[in-house]
Design goal:
The protein is an alpha/beta fold. The N and C termini lie far apart (66 Å). The protein has a single domain, classed as Aldolase class I (TIM Barrel), CATH 3.20.20. The mean pLDDT is 91. It is globular. The protein contains 12 helices and 10 strands. It has a 7-stranded mixed β-sheet. A 3-stranded mixed β-sheet has the order 1-5-4.
C-alpha cells in the first residue's frame, strides 16, 4: 500500500488538531524542526504520559437512544490503541487536550474508580442495571496490563453480583477469564469484542496498537469455550476499506462461537473529520477521495451525522447494501443464536458484598 512522506507508523492520528475550546492555536514551525534536527532532539515526544485523576462519580448514565446501554464506566480517558476513526477522540478536548495525537499519548487514569463503584453498589437508592465498561475508551488498553484497574473492577462486580458488559478490542481480556467465568455462571457478564477487519495490514494502519486479528479471533474462541457469552462488533464499517469483508468476518467469528454480531457505519464527527482525512491522504492517497466521498454518501453529503436513529447506520445506497449484507450473514451463520439477557436479580441480596440470609 502506497504511503506518502510524513506518515508516522504506529500512530493513528498523524497530527494534533486544534482544540475547539482553546483560545490559542499551536503549530509546529519549520525553524523549530530545523533546530531539533541540528540538536539531535525529537520534536515529537512519543512516549505515553499517565495523568492521575480522582473523579467524584464513576458511573455515567447513557441517554443516547442509539446505544444499547443504560450506564457506562470508563476507568481511562484517552486510549493508547490509537484507532484513527474513534468517536471518543472528541471527548479529550473537554480535558484540555487535542483529539489527535494527545488522545493516544495523554491517558487519564481514574485511580479511585473501584472505591466509587463500591459506594454506588452499596447505595440503597441504586437498583441493579447493566453497566458497560468502555462505553467511551477501551478498559483493556495497553496500560491496563500494568495497572489492573479493570481486573479490580470485575472483582467488584463479582463481589456484589452485579451485571456488567464489556467492550474491547484487546486480547488482554483473556487474562481475566477466571473472573469472567464466575460472573458467567450467574449470567452476569457479556463481552462485546470489536473486530474491524480480517486484513492484518489494514488493522495495523487503522488500529495501530490493538491486538492482532489472529489474537482477537482466538479471544472469541477462548471466551466461548469457557461459557462466557461473546458478541462481535464490526465497528465501524468504512466504505471501500472494510465494507467487502462482512460475510467472511461474520463466518469467521461464528465458527469460533460468537452468539451475535453488530455494526456501525463510520461517521467522522467533530475533530475526527480532519484527523481521518489527513490520515487517509497519507496512508492511501490513491483511494482517499473515493473513501471520503463514499462516507459522505452515507450521511447526506457530510462526513458526520448527529441525528439519533440515523447516525449509527447511515442512509443511502451504500448503507442499505451494508445492512442487507448483515441480514444475509446473520441468517447464514448465526441462525438460532442470541446473547442471554443479563441477570439483574441477584445484586439486591449482595448490597454489602455478602449474601443476605434473612
Amino acid at each position: 500500500m502506497q504511503k506518502v512522506d510524513g506518515y508516522t507508523a504506529g500512530r493513528g492520528a498523524q497530527l494534533n488538531v486544534h482544540n475547539r475550546f482553546d483560545a490559542q492555536a499551536h503549530e509546529v514551525r519549520e525553524d523549530f524542526l530545523n533546530y531539533c534536527a541540528l540538536e539531535g532532539e525529537d520534536p515529537y515526544k512519543t512516549q505515553t504520559v499517565l495523568i492521575d485523576t480522582f473523579p467524584k462519580t464513576i458511573v455515567n448514565r447513557v441517554d443516547s437512544p442509539d446505544l444499547r446501554m443504560g450506564f457506562s464506566l470508563n476507568p481511562y480517558q484517552g486510549c493508547e490503541h490509537g484507532c484513527v476513526y474513534c468517536y471518543a477522540r472528541n471527548s479529550h478536548e473537554y480535558w484540555g487536550y487535542s483529539a489527535g495525537v494527545d488522545f493516544e499519548q495523554k491517558i487519564l487514569v481514574k485511580r479511585n474508580c473501584v472505591e466509587l463503584l463500591e459506594k454506588k453498589f452499596q447505595s440503597k437508592r441504586w437498583e441493579a442495571s447493566p453497566i458497560v465498561l468502555s462505553g467511551n475508551t477501551d478498559c483493556y488498553q495497553p496500560i491496563e496490563k500494568k495497572l489492573e484497574i479493570t481486573r479490580s473492577l470485575l472483582k467488584t462486580f463479582l463481589k456484589y453480583k452485579h451485571p456488567v458488559g464489556i467492550i474491547t478490542k484487546n486480547a488482554l481480556i483473556q487474562r481475566d477469564i477466571d473472573i469472567l467465568k464466575e460472573l458467567a455462571k450467574d449470567n452476569l457478564v457479556q463481552v462485546n469484542l470489536s473486530i474491524t477487519s480480517l486484513d492484518e495490514s489494514m488493522r495495523r494502519m487503522l488500529e495501530p496498537r490493538t491486538a492482532t486479528v489472529k489474537k482477537r479471533l482466538e479471544t472469541v474462541e477462548k471466551l466461548t469455550a469457557e461459557g462466557i457469552p461473546v458478541s462481535v462488533m464490526m465497528a465501524p464499517i468504512i466504505p471501500a476499506i472494510n465494507s467487502h469483508e462482512i460475510l467472511p468476518l461474520v463466518k469467521a467469528v461464528a465458527e469460533r462461537g460468537a452468539l451475535s454480531v453488530g455494526y456501525t457505519m463510520v461517521r467522522l464527527n467533530g475533530a475526527i473529520g480532519g484527523i481521518f482525512t489527513d490520515w487517509i491522504q497519507k496512508t492511501m492517497p490513491d483511494r482517499a477521495e473515493k473513501v471520503l466521498h463514499q462516507i459522505a454518501e452515507c450521511h447526506g453529503g457530510n462526513l458526520n451525522d448527529s441525528v439519533f436513529g440515523r447516525r449509527m447506520k447511515g442512509e443511502g445506497n451504500i448503507a442499505e447494501q451494508v445492512a442487507q449484507q448483515f441480514t444475509i450473514a446473520r441468517k447464514k451463520y448465526l441462525q438460532g443464536r442470541a446473547l442471554p439477557v443479563l441477570n439483574c436479580d441477584l445484586h439486591e441480596q449482595y448490597k454489602d458484598g455478602q449474601m443476605k440470609l434473612f
